[in-house]
Every structure is written in structure tokens, then in C-alpha cells.
Amino acid sequence: MTTTFGLLNLDKPPGPTSHDLVARVRRGTGVRKVGHAGTLDPMATGVLVLCLGPATRLSEYVMASSKTYRAQVHFGVETNTYDADGEVVAQNPDPVAEGDILAHLPEFQGEIAQVPPMYSAIKRGGKKLYELARAGAEVEREPRPVTIQRLDLLAWEPPVATLEIECSPGTYIRSLAQDLGRALGVGAHLAGLERAASGGFTVEDAVGWDEFAQAMEDGTWPDYVLPPDVALLDMPVLHLDPPQAANVRNGIWVRVGDDHQPPNTLARAYDAEGRFFAVLERRGSKWKPHKVFNV
């Protein structure tokens, strides 16, 4: 039986959790190892990259890439979760002008310190923050550095602003909505969120859940599986001859040509048949096996 080794760019629908979809794909495809490369909240939609089979070991590279979101921020209403799934905790009927929003957006661009929401999966004392929040507790959270490369106002239909955000991994868009509302003095919450891109994976190229669910039923789901190395296109390429590939598979460092890549560079390695099978790390004049896939 051929091992499934690849990635799935799924357009997540609102409602199910990322883990729900992982479980459904595992059942529907029969692939035992399925993981996601960056969770989305239940209300969120858009790019959810699933890693199938040995490709679960590539999730860190997808998760480390920049993200692009389209967010609907509802001004004048705050919730305990910072999004539309939470309970309303404050309201302010004061009007907000488009110019006020535009005036405050620069404050949230570049490298900023962001306090994660209580309703998040960050752990404190062995418990996730959302577990503590559901028990009625609130603990102090240390600000975390995040980078927002771009923050644009796409539309303003009072009291909801549609923003497009390009940011570093680990950025909480819910916290951004909360902080922006407080900067304007009226409060806000995240009313809707779509992840438009995760690295090179875009929502325009993603397969919808209904379409993929049907493909799992009729057995054509492998047609949607992408090659695993599409997650590594920014890495240099090494082509190994059979002895070199055999050494790498046995954990032996190899010398490949007269390459001059700097130390600690990661590269994707291909065997003589052109199959991607390893990630190598530059160490001195040789390449050390970093991740080897037995496929």
C-alpha cells in the first residue's frame, strides 16, 4: 500500500474546530497520521493546511510562515472572548468615523507587544488559559512580540470595519480587534475572520470542505493532495546520487558538490529519481540529515 505523503489546502468552513476536521479527514481517508499546520478558531474560515502521513513532520515550516487575514471588526461591543462567540461584557453607542480608524491603524503596524486573550490555548501552570477562563479565573498574561507587516482598511460599514492583515505567526487577530476598539475608546470584538493565506497557500487555491468530503466518499480525495515539498519552496535544492541518498537515509552526513551555503542552512534533498525525501542542514562543509522521510 502506497504511503500518503503530502499536504491538503483546505478552505475551513465556520463551525467545526480545526481538530474536528483533522478527525474527519483521518476517518474519511484512512490516513492514520493527519495534523494541521496552524489552528483556526471555530468561527473562522479560510486556509487550513493539513499534513498527511510523514508530512506531519513538515508542519513547523508552514506554521512559521507569515499569514494574511481578512477580519470584520465590530466596534462598540466587547465580549469576554474578544470575538462573536463570547458573551457581551461592554457596549458603547458612541459613533466611530472612518477617519478615526485610519488614524489609529499605524499604531498597530510593525513590531508590537500583544497580550494574548484569556480564551486561548496558551498554557499556564499546566492548564490552558481558556480552561481557566471558563472556570471564572483571569490571570496576568505577558505581552508577546508580534509583527504586523500590513494593516489595511478594506471597507467601512458602520459599525463594522473589514481589515486585511499580513502578520507574523502567533498573532491573535482577536486581540488586535480588542486593542483597536479600546484605542478608539468604544471597544470592539472580532465579528468574522478568514485566513486568506498561510505562506504560499491561498484561499483561492483551497478546496472547499463539502467538495473534499464528497471526494472522500467517492475515493477521489488523493487528487487534492499536494506534494509535500510545496511547503519548502523557499529552501535551496540538493540533488543526491544513490550513494549519497543511501548515506542520508542511514543518518550519515554527506558532502554535496562544492556548495557554499552558509552554516545552518536548511535544504530539501531529492534522490536520483527526483523524489523529495529529506531536509538537510548545512554543517561546515557537509550536510547533516535533519529530517528523513521513509517513503
Whole-angstrom Rg? 22 Å
The tally of domains stands at 3
Instruction: Please name the CATH topology of the largest domain.
Output: Pseudouridine synthase
CATH superfamily of the largest domain: Pseudouridine synthase
- Strand segment count: 18
Largest sheet entry: 10 strands, mixed
Percentage of residues assigned to helices:
10-25%
Tell me the number of helical segments per DSSP (H or I, 4 or more residues long). 7
Structural class: alpha+beta
Q: Tell me, what's the shape? A: globular
Keywords:
single chain, 295 residues, alpha+beta, Pseudouridine synthase, Archaeosine Trna-guanine Transglycosylase, Chain: A, domain 4, 10-stranded mixed beta sheet, 4-stranded mixed beta sheet, 20% helix
Q: Describe it for me?
A:
The chain is an alpha+beta fold and 295 residues long. It folds into 3 domains: 6-65 and 201-228, Pseudouridine synthase; 67-193, Pseudouridine synthase, CATH 3.30.2350; 235-292, PUA domain (Archaeosine Trna-guanine Transglycosylase, Chain: A, domain 4), CATH 2.30.130.10. It has 7 helices and 18 strands. The chain has helices at 18-29, 59-63, 98-104, 129-134, 173-183, 209-218, 242-249; strands at 6-12, 34-36, 45-52, 67-75, 77-79, 88-91, 110-114, 123-124, 127-128, 144-157, 160-167, 188-198, 201-202, 207-208, 237-239, 266-270, 276-283, 286-292. It is globular. The termini are close together.
Write the layout of secondary structure elements.
Blueprint: E1 6-12, H1 18-29, E2 34-36, E3 45-52, H2 59-63, E4 67-75, E5 77-79, E6 88-91, H3 98-104, E7 110-114, E8 123-124, E9 127-128, H4 129-134, E10 144-157, E11 160-167, H5 173-183, E12 188-198, E13 201-202, E14 207-208, H6 209-218, E15 237-239, H7 242-249, E16 266-270, E17 276-283, E18 286-292
Parallel strand pairs: 1-14, 3-12, 15-16
Antiparallel strand pairs: 1-3, 2-3, 4-11, 4-12, 5-6, 7-10, 8-9, 10-11, 12-13, 16-17, 17-18
